[in-house]
Structure formats: C-alpha cells, structure tokens
Amino acid sequence: MSRPLVPGERVLLLDSKQRRYLVTLEEGAEFHTHSGFVPHDTLIGADEGVTVTTTRGSRYRVVRPTLSDFVLKMPRGAQVIYPKDLGPILMLADVFPGARILESGVGSGALSTTLLRAGAEITGYEIRADFITRARRNVEAFLGPEVLDRYHVEERDCYEGIEGDGYDRIVLDLPEPWQVVPHAETALAPGGILVAYTPSITQAATLRARLAEGPWSFAETIEILQRGWHIDGQAVRPDHRMVGHTGFLTHARLMGN
Ligand code: SAH
C-alpha cells in the first residue's frame, strides 16, 4: 500500500554522490542546492523512492529518514551516541515496550529517541535547560507529539540522587557514571539493568570498581567495532577508513537481597 509524502514530514534527499539532506516538507517551499532547486510541492503527494530533478538538472532520490539517518542529521548541542552503539544499547539494556527507564544525561536526545521508539517510558535527568529543550524537540520531530506523554525530562543533577524507585533500567551517558551507582541501587527494581556509555576506558574501569563494591552481577564492558566493506564487482575489500573509536558500553544487573 502506498503512503504518499505529506506536508510537515521529514524527508531525506540523496544526491548522486550519496550526500544526504534532511528536509521538512512545506507547501510552497523550495529545497535549494548548488544546482538549482526543487519545489516541495513536487514531493508532496509522491511516493517514497521517487527521483526528483532540480531546475538545473541535478537528480535527488527521496525517502523517509530511518532513525539512524535522523540521528546523524538532527540538530545537536551535545555529542550524540551513534547508531553503531545505539542498537547494542537496546539489547544490553533489554528495552521492552513499557519499560520504565531513567536516562541521564539526555543531551541532544539521540538515545532518548531510540529508547522511546522501542516503547520505553523515560524519566530523563539533564543539567542543561537548553539541552532539554533541544532533546524534546528532536524526539518530537522524529516520533511525533504523542510520544511526549512517555518522555519526562527534569533539570536535575543525577549525581545528587534519583527520586522514586522501581525503575526497570537506568541508562547513563554522563562523565562520572560511578557517582550514580549508589542511587541506582535504590532506584532500580531487583533484576534491573544499568548501562553506561563512556568515551574513555578509565571511566569504565572506575565504574566497574564501584559496581564491584555493590550488589551487582553480570557486569561486562564491551566496545562495538564496525567495519564497512567496499563492494564493487570483483573489487571487494574492507573500506580504507573506519571509525576507530566512539565509546565503551558497561552493563550490570542489580541483585536482590
Ligand atoms: N546520550 C545523549 C548525549 C548525552 S551528552 C544523546 O545521545 O544525545 C551528556 C549529557 O550529560 C550532557 O547533555 C550534559 O549536560 C549531561 N550531564 C552531565 N553531567 C550530568 C549530571 N550530573 N546530571 C545530569 N546530566 C548531566
């Protein structure tokens, strides 16, 4: 069944060099490039996958962005977690529809969008008011306004404590996750899972040392390496360049008494 593009939704335009542009469709608006423009009205009502031509002859393919496309293109203040790590975080945190998750810090909302899309209910703690605004905007832009019913972000310092208990999961992307561990021990339900993303291995080691002092089991730290391949006929080899490093993922489960 076809689902034509409508005003207000975001589309991704790809040029012949695979460059990507994220555009919000608006009646009467124009998408401008170095070689002419495309009226949005040409796209509105068209099916995904359509190819459009600018006034000066350049061709663009048009699709709805995937979550991964959106994360790479969305407006950001803080550094976001990349799709390479976002996918594994969903598994490590074992996110399920209705899971009650405490997330901190919220940053630009890339991780929030991913957790919400998997059906989680998020309480977010973030110390910067401007990031809260941005994260909400990004989440809403990709998932729509209804999702804000299960996305509650507070301007709070997570090192100072977590209000409430019975959380299923705690997912952290902030500089000193070990400072959150004592609070996680009361806020998480028994069997609950903590996952922390840290750019540096010394952060992971400090976190692991703190987890080892408490009622935690199944602790593990991993990194995700992703290597693309160049495939062109018989010329098949790994890409020359790869992303060498993003961050480490540490996870553990809280045990009961
Ligand atoms: N995971 C986010 C990026 C988070 S960047 C994403 O994918 O978009 C780290 C964030 O942690 C920043 O926004 C920073 O303001 C926030 N932060 C740092 N220390 C904090 C603390 N003690 N409590 C709450 N938030 C904190």
Any overview of this molecule?
This protein has 257 residues and is an alpha/beta fold. The chain folds into two domains: 10-65, Vcp-like ATPase, Chain A, domain 2 (Roll); 69-254, 3-Layer(aba) Sandwich (Rossmann fold), CATH 3.40.50. It is 25% helix and 32% strand. The chain is built from seven helices and 15 strands. The protein has helices at residues 40-43, 67-73, 83-92, 110-117, 129-143, 181-187, 201-212, and strands at residues 10-14, 20-24, 30-33, 36-39, 51-53, 59-63, 100-104, 121-126, 151-155, 167-172, 188-198, 216-222, 229-232, 235-238, 248-254. The chain has a seven-stranded mixed β-sheet with strand order 9-8-7-10-11-15-12, sandwiched between helices. A hairpin with a 5-residue loop joins β1 and β2 (20-24). The model has no long low-confidence stretch (mean pLDDT 96). The site of S-adenosyl-L-homocysteine has 22 residues, from α4 and β8. Residues 78-81, 104-105, 107-111, 125-128, 131, 157-159, 173-175 line the site of S-adenosyl-L-homocysteine.
